[in-house]
Amino acid sequence: MAEGFGDPTPRVTLTVQRSMYNDDGSGGSVTLPPVSVNDDGTYTFTDTPTTAGRYSYLAMWSGEAAAGPAKATHQIMVE
Fold first, then answer.
1. Is 16 exposed, middle or buried (0-12, 13-18, 19+ CB in 10 A)?
2. pLDDT of 39-73, one tens digit each?
3. How many other C-beta atoms lie within 10 A of the C-beta of residue 7?
4. Residue 65 has what pLDDT?
5. Which pLDDT score is estimated for 63?
6. Higher-confidence residue: 61 or 17?
7. Around 12, how many Cα atoms within 13 Å sit in the side-chain half-sphere?
8. Running DSSP on this structure, what letter comes out for residue 64?
């Protein structure tokens, strides 16, 4: 998965949280390992869910003096 958002400074660290939702109401959230932003402002991480369900990924950057915080979301369905 590769996304760009909010133009974070290259080489900053993002926090990525994965949330999982099932039709029966079960699920949960976990923070994935830190992700570094590439020189072109994109980032990439790999996650392989093993349980069927709806997943939402939230990438967050806390910001800096020249730019405020940013976030991006991406959703997938695992069958």
1. buried
2. 888 889 999 998 889 999 999 988 877 778 889 99
3. 11
4. 76
5. 81
6. 17
7. 21
8. B
**Of the candidates 49, 48, 61, which has an alpha carbon nearest to the alpha carbon of residue 3?**
61
CA of 7: how far to CAs of 1, 27, 34, 75, in Å?
A: 17, 31, 17, 21
Going through the chain in order, the beta strands assigned E by DSSP cover 2-4, 13-21, 27-31, 35-36, 42-44, 53-61, 70-78
**Residue 77: both structure tokens together:** 């369905």
| CB-based contact 23:58 (threshold 8 Å) | no
> What's the pTM value of the predicted model, to 2 decimals?
0.78
